[in-house]
Description:
The structure holds two protein chains of two kinds.
Chain A: H1 2-10, H2 15-58
Chain B: H1 2-5, H2 8-40, H3 54-81, H4 84-116, H5 124-143, H6 149-163, H7 166-176, H8 196-239
Amino acid sequence: MLNNLINFLSMGGYGHFIWGAFGLSAIVLIGLIIQILQFLKSSETLLHSIKEKTNETET
Amino acid sequence: MFNYFANPVRFLRLTSKLQPITMFVASVTIGLGLYYGLVKSPPDYQQSETVRIMYVHVPAAWMAMFCYVAIACSSAVALIWRHMLANIIAKSTAPIGASFTFLALATGSLWGKPMWGTWWVWDARLTSVLILFFLYLGYMVLYNAFDDQSRGARAAAILSIVGVINVPIIKFSVDWWNTLHQPASVIKMDGPSIHPSMLTPLILMAVGYTALYFWLLFVRTRAELNANKVRMMSIQQVET
């Protein structure tokens, strides 16, 4: 069981390169997702607050 | 069709339906693609296990070119019909495409070291993809380089259209020049020359990356439209 796992992780001796490529792809894409979702969130809060402000000045 | 969806309200209504669908497709296909790519598919008879890098390298490279063509096309629409939304789609695509290009270069390097014996060579394929990466960076810098957003958008749009000439150069670089990079083996006139056991994870990952692009594009255009609205409302407030 443990041997199987070690075998799988070593990837025939090329583990560094393969896990490096998959890990880097994961980090970059997840980072991109987080950044874009945060941008959406901050833009929504900003829009909300400015809408409230215009409502206040109108009343 | 362009005119119909150029209306931001209509566009947002459509994308709010497509957003969960693309997110779902992306997570399922990437999940399956990782399982098939890392576990189920066999090692290559020449490259042994390193062939698995293909499943993250090739889809990233495809998306790098796809996103660039998307930027150039929507920039052309923006220049000709002056649709504000087309500029926003191009602008929102840029960081996504740049990320895919970076990944194509980096994972290619991680594949090149064990198989070619070098991280990098200055040959036609690798150099033209590096130029693509710089085109993305140049596009993003130029877009934000002017106080007047519309001038930046115009300059960046022209840059992206001129730069589109690089895309066929990338595609055919492996046929036109001597290179360490292998020629195309999936998109060929006589069909793919890859065994189904390896083609399955490759296609799954490619579909997953495409769905991921559209999901992120929809989210980002929504955020950009919000930011535009904020800008216009704050101008109105100053004026009154």
